[in-house]
Amino acid sequence: MDAPAGLGSARVVLDAFRSVTDEHVCELETIRGAVPSDLRGVLYRNGPGRVRIGDDVYDHPFDGDGMVSRVSFEDGAVRYRNRYVRTREFLEEEAAGRMCFRAFGTNLPGGLKRNFLRLRFKNAANTSVVHHGGRLLALWEGGLPHTLDPLTLETRERFDFDGALTAPAGRSWLERLITPELPFAAHPRLDPVTGELFSFGTLLGRHNQLLLYRVRPDGMLDRTERVPLDGLAFVHDFVLTERYRVFFLTPVEFGVVPALAGLVAPAAAITERSGAPTEILVVPRAGGEPRRFEAPPCFVFHHINGFDDGDRIVIDSLQMDRYPSGSIDFDDPWSLLRFDYPPPYPTRFTLELGARQVDVRRLSETPMELPTIHPGRSTRRHRFAWAQAASDPAFSTPVMTRIVKLDVETGEALTRELAPDIPGEPLFVARSEPSADAAEDDGFLLVVVYRAESRRSDLVVLDAKDLEELAVLALPHHHPPGFHGSFVPATPRG
Prior knowledge:
Blueprint: H1 7-16, E1 25-27, E2 29-33, E3 41-50, E4 52-53, E5 56-57, E6 65-74, E7 77-84, H2 88-96, H3 112-115, E8 128-132, E9 135-139, E10 146-148, E11 155-158, H4 173-178, E12 189-190, E13 197-203, E14 209-215, E15 221-228, E16 239-240, E17 244-249, E18 252-254, H5 256-261, E19 270-272, E20 278-284, E21 291-295, E22 299-309, E23 312-320, H6 333-338, E24 345-352, E25 357-362, E26 368-372, E27 384-389, E28 402-407, E29 413-417, E30 422-423, E31 427-430, E32 443-451, E33 456-463, E34 469-474, E35 485-489
Antiparallel strand pairs: 1-7, 2-34, 3-6, 3-35, 4-5, 6-7, 8-9, 9-10, 10-11, 12-13, 13-14, 14-15, 16-17, 17-20, 18-19, 20-21, 22-23, 23-24, 24-25, 26-27, 27-28, 28-29, 30-32, 31-32, 32-33, 33-34
């Protein structure tokens, strides 16, 4: 019997996620092309670097220990280092040589006996990394950020913004036990004009809440708002415009009792509410009552961008028709084929504020994920987005082997095929010294690419305008595709 189409790619993906065992400090060799002289600054990336500890293997890629990498482009040299985030959970499991904590998609081995009422979940610190207000933060949406040394990546502390993320008084003992600290999501949004960083968290309790944070340019969290929720929503990302914060409360529900009792991992306790609409929650940045809209049922992990257009809000998102479900055995590529991951299509949601109506229009038939835009266009009208993309429009296997540039005005999608290699999230970087009339796509894409044949990884620099390869730098180890990153531009010369 022949292997199904996609099995080879599934093997490559799972091989790419194998654990990284070493931490490196080195200068990177350019093996093809040349690094552009006007690419200057520091690239930070975060993602699961270890998916097993001892004989224990995680059931979900979201559970791997966070490994942050740093690539600096400075004075003609490109320097690299990688380091695990030393969370208290990481250190305890390192010492024990086995899993000691339940995780988002993984229960402890040993069945109910080891998981019953085990309410301390692992903070994997593995989803994103952001430099703001002089601090480098490794983020995981279910708990506190961790501060890292921006140069050495040494873990400094679990960071609660000087007590602002300490759970408030008046909560029950069970609520304090489940969430002793307030969660700070892994998808903050920066307003490039004001310099403010906005984020959120979802809080489980007798009264579920959406917590809204604003962090000043100096790094101080000076405002937390609370919006009541009817149920506990799974919100991974949100949209920031000049006037609003927008959240998609998709029709899924969380089985609190089976998850907290230890019968299943939290990921397995998330189910769809069949036929229920998607609620879109619009919260004014200046304060005031939220507005609620209804859209067709869907699920969204990531939004591209949003902007205000008179009495309308325009939101570009990657829309799935249902919530992805399943678990992954990192030793079995068939498990990736069985994983139910619906294709994410770029889709425009236009909210008519006066009429309380939502218009939904698909922008392209190319499935894509992990989008990026020019950071200067965040919260403002944009034209281009870049992302991972699938070679197979039917998305029969949840594998992305392309990089795509999408024109959201025309729907034109320019792609660069990398198969059998696997790219991570592309990150747009504007030129260090752009011209006064620089176009929105005048810059570079930085992409970590896992090489299927050699089982190692490169950092690839592409021209954002036409996706042409400019430089390839060899990384000193295989680098899992990871999740999210950020770029800190160098201080302008002169």
